[in-house]
Amino acid sequence: MCMNQKNKIFVFILLMSFTSMIGQTIKGKVTDKSGEPLSFVNVLEKETVNGVTTDEQGEFVLNVKKMPTTLVFSFVGFTTVEKTLYNVSYVTITLNEDNVLDEVVLTGNRSKPRTILDSAVPIDNVSVRELQATGQTNIDQMLTYTVPSYNSSNQTISDATAHFDPADLRGLGPSRTLVLVNGKRKNQSALVYVNDTPGKGEVGVDMKSIPTAAIERVEILRDGASAQYGSDAVAGVVNIILKKNIEFTQVNVNSGVTKEGDGFNVDGDVNHTFTFGEGGFVNATLGLSYQEKTNRAGEPGKDDLFGVDNQWTRDNPDLGMTIGQPEMKKGDLFVNAEYPLNDNTKLYAFGGFNMRQGKSFALYRPPYWITDDFGLLTPPGETYDGFQPTFETDIQDVLFTAGSKFKLGGFDADLSGSFGRNSVDYTIGNTINVSLGANSPTSFDAGAYAFSNIIGNFDVSRSFGDVSIGLGVEARQERFEVTAGEEASYIDGGAQSFPGLQPSNALDETRTNIGGYGTLDWDASEDFLIGGAIRYENYSDFGDNFSWKISSRYKLGEAGVLRASYSTGFRAPSLHQVYLSNVQTLVSGGTISNQGTFNNVSPVIKALGVDPLFAETSKNISAGITVKASNNFTISLDYYNVKVDDRVLFSGEIGGTDDNGNPNATVQQILDDYDVTSIKFFINAADTKTEGFDYTMRYKNIDFAAGKLGLNLALNINRTKLEGEVKTPTNLANYKDAIFNRKEQSRIISARPNTKFLFGGDYKYKKFTAYLNNTYFGEVTWQHATDPGKDQTFSGKIITDLSLGYEFSDMISFNAQVNNLFDVYPDEIDTKGDVVTDLGGRFKYPWEVNQFGFNGMTFKAGLTFKF
């Protein structure tokens, strides 16, 4: 060997040693076989926790500690590729399509990720591109137009509910869908939906607090999962996966308006990844948005609610009302970070802060209702003409999770801590407290609600050949706080539209719970999987619960899968439902009056014989089949049956007389003592059975007009029935109808569409993309409290959405959407002699039951910049 060769070898060894100490940066791109870039491909350094995902151009940057190294490339619907690199260079990887059902998902199995094909339960995997193609402005509306069994719609004239919009899965109510972020439990909102909307009496998660620009994808488990995740997972689980290490910076700017010229909105966001150290990153999203109100009030020309038909109603045919989406200003900051300490340990943290300021509207106070404003709201020199109070909210949502994933004696371990808090502060504006006369303020601090939790999790998992096990414990503390408003907001009848929260309503209550779970999956053969899960929970306020689940999957060769599961579950009553109390101005007893909500631990409610709230329990059966007709054509069909016992309900109006018209002296004394016309409370009162079918069909990569066409069809058919009789306290035995009357029943059985059908297509030609989606929202039925002859069914409607996009370059792209292309509205309300259905003509379209809102056609366009 010559000296020159020896020198070269020496230099090579020296360089290898040096680079192993300082680390190396590998860059590359991942495409499909046609050369199209693949976004969000997982790029992992083999046998380590070090990894990234590709950006929307299919490119990635990964820091490794030494060379050579082996990288593993995996992506939904494609074969996994391993590539060993001996030196630093630009890497180009091509992935070939595999089974399009083989999408790796994290939700539904606590021991290890599985593919959708391997899963024994139905799971949707929705990419951010699919969500954004809907043209909707927030995540709950986006999911409504992509997942048939998920429903949410804009609410109005419903106090703070108009700023949250209840959402549910499979028609089981907002309280029974568990929401996770990166697999960790998201805190509930501070608000109980106490107004006459879908989800009344329940508590959900503030979905508007999570910015779409921070989301990589959403996994939706459509099956009961209490045995894995604990309370609230009766209907299923929504797991929001945040973006990771993306090389480029992306800026989105969008704006829109309705066909009627109102509801103008504009939003902008930026997503950027900061890298540090060897493999560390922080993906950050900053967003701002602004939304103006819409108005679709009725035009009755008279006011049947007050029995008035005079010159004022003729001069003001809409009765002064503003009915539609609220005004809204929003800002949010979200981060997702990871840092590998070594090959076996990774630190992670994620979370964000969301702030929203909104303004919605209450019923207009015409001069024949409130006869004088004492000159406080009427400009000098003008004649008093009534006023419309505003309901203004200051909403804040905070979420932060930090933890570590590491190896522990051959197990994969995950230790984390989470904090989440949601608060809503009320301001009642453009109104007065009549009892204070000319000394009344015109804007009132009406108080605030807040809910927070602190959660600790420790999970371990391991595979032993064909057997995978998972074990974990969770400790959680929850806190519900109520802050009283200023005295002027509640004294002597309070501010018009919403008497403020009183000192007697103020509280600060906590509870704790500890849970432990175990899971086991056994691949008995290449085709047959059987799995099980158990979970024990103990709550400090109502006791314990034990849930279990068994599931199985059998592969039908390469063509499809049979799957089934049976599970028990539970939902703990929320702290809000246990402790909420307030007075609201509502339509009560056929007129406008103050209605009192008394909490479940109140001596007043205990005196009526109402038991303390306890956990709902459930039984969930599901069975289905998936068929892979080809790599591009897949079909799935799933049946489900969910029984919920002792469902927590928000009672109807309890007045001084019972169902038979007989006076009740005990109840009447409560009404007199608290100056209200009716009382309400929470109670475990009903059993329900929900059953239905989910059907999906996807056909992609169809050659069409020199481009590629994809077709998508999805269907949900859902029915909820009441089983048995309403469970009534002994002292209120003759109030069975009042506690859960026909109108309250309709919020559970018919307030959401029982049938929802999506049919659409996507087309891509070079730099041009188009999405056309048709969503059929089935009929909904409003039931009168006592008279079936006054019920109304609102027929099903089809909403068509069109989205177009064009890439001018690698850096700039354009998108435009028309939502509700044919300007479809719900059926108009037919009062049938009952003024409460439309509040005396104020409402033109249904509001107590809801399909898709009533904004009509909207336009939206935007630009995306990448650099």
Give the CATH architecture of the largest domain.
Beta Barrel
Note the quaternary state here: single chain
Q: What's the story with the biggest beta sheet?
A: 22 strands, antiparallel, barrel
Poorly predicted tracts of residues: 8-22
Share of residues in strands:
over 45%
Helix content: under 10%
Q: Which fold name corresponds to the CATH topology of the largest domain? A: Maltoporin, Chain A
Shape: globular
Task: Please tell me the total number of domains.
Answer: 2
Output the CATH homologous superfamily of the largest domain: TonB-dependent receptor, beta-barrel domain
Number of helices: 11
Mean pLDDT: 88
* Rg for CA atoms: 29 Å
GO cellular component, one term: cell outer membrane
Keywords: Cell outer membrane, Membrane, Receptor, Signal, TonB box, Transmembrane, Transmembrane beta strand, Transport
Membrane topology: Multi-pass membrane protein
Signal peptide: 1-22
